[in-house]
């Protein structure tokens, strides 16, 4: 029997309208002064850092999760690492980056914020560093080259404690991740394929729970629910 339902017009509207985005970017709280200054500096100088709505969410989420051991993949000038560590002496952040200029700037920032004891910079390519790590973490934030998220995923899971969270930034490629491959410029096809593969594999992967948020260019949150190896699921 067919039954008429009231139309839920929100279902047919994009979730993030420009005015909603403006609100989330411009009207949500500012961070403590040095972090706020670094965020403004990064935006003015077009240094790639997480957008404000993602930063506010990250800050909120860590307040709930209460991690002590954090791993970051993709540090840039240290904005997100500083945000996670500042005013939280109980937290330690190990953060990976391979780009000298970013590392020099991040060091200066950590020094001036008094975070040198709380942040450890791991210099080099995450593909070499991740397999060598032996520590485990409550929270991992991955914000590096998108074509590598799929490859790095099982290594992140190796290093994540059971019940720990992995947050991955920028998974939508501006929404083009859902377009047909032949409409995608050749230079970004690898990213397109790898992000699609990641989204596909996590759907049916045992031992994790996931959710996706339309913040910035898309955030994937993964909770590890079983202590197992994920390398076979993410075969190359
Ligand atoms: C988007 S930026 C990180 C921004 C930072 N999370 C923030 O919000 O303040 C990405 C960084 O990842 C680094 N990166 C990309 N691929 C990497 C890899 N395979 N190994 C190490 N660092 C990498 C780049 O050098 C760049 O500094």
From TrEMBL:
GO MF term set: O-methyltransferase activity; S-adenosylmethionine-dependent methyltransferase activity; tRNA (uridine) methyltransferase activity
GO biological process: tRNA methylation
Record field: catalytic activity: 5-hydroxyuridine(34) in tRNA + S-adenosyl-L-methionine = 5-methoxyuridine(34) in tRNA + S-adenosyl-L-homocysteine + H(+)
InterPro entries: Cation-dep_OMT, SAM-dependent_MTases_sf, SAM_O-MeTrfase, TrmR_methyltr
Keyword annotations from UniProtKB, A to Z: Methyltransferase, S-adenosyl-L-methionine, Transferase, tRNA processing
Keyword Heme set for record: no
Highest taxon, organism lineage: Bacteria
Annotated positions binding S-adenosyl-L-methionine: 50, 80, 97, 125-126, 143
UniProt EC number: 2.1.1.-
Subunit and partners: Homodimer.
Role, per record: Catalyzes the methylation of 5-hydroxyuridine (ho5U) to form 5-methoxyuridine (mo5U) at position 34 in tRNAs.
Entry similarity comment: Belongs to the class I-like SAM-binding methyltransferase superfamily. Cation-dependent O-methyltransferase family.
PANTHER family: CAFFEOYL-COA O-METHYLTRANSFERASE 3-RELATED, O-METHYLTRANSFERASE-RELATED
HAMAP family: TrmR_methyltr
Name of this chain's protein: tRNA 5-hydroxyuridine methyltransferase
Organism: Aerococcus suis
